[in-house]
Amino acid sequence: MTLVVFESELGKHVSRITRENSPAVGLACLQTLEKLCTNIIDSPNDAKYQSLRSRNSKIKSTILNPTGGSEVLTLLGFTKRVQEFEEVWHFSASESSLNKLRKAQVILGESLQGAKQEAERVEQKAKEAKEKGSAEQQRREEVLRHIEADRQNVKERVAREKYMR
């Protein structure tokens, strides 16, 4: 696969991650994938970065469960294997695969900026909605207090009028 085709495919999958998952999940997925690329590029001969256990809770929740995450792993050059009765994603480091990872690191880094902004926007919206809901609740409580005070006033007035007759 040429680098141009690789970039195009990676772009499609990254956009799928951000589009089909919640902003927080998409952001976590992209951050983990970007960190994975960085670790392998920085230490290409370190075996601990070249194997990912599918059972690992962090890998499962941030890469494998979100839509599009496992497709990006495959595109990055990871292959699924069974090792000691356990599913493991393995990366074989070569010069061409490391070049792909470098390109992916750049693309993922750029995508992270947009994903962070979207996650912050959604978080701010949720915060505003919560504050608005809180203000609305306070307004309701104030109206209910006024209604109760009015009922009490009417009750007292009716009692006075009855007494005056």
From TrEMBL:
UniProt cross-references to Pfam families, sorted A to Z: PUB
Annotated ranges, domain PUB: 28-102
Domain of life: Eukaryota
Cellular compartments per GO CC: cytoplasm
Region (Disordered): 119-165
Name of the protein this chain belongs to: PUB domain-containing protein
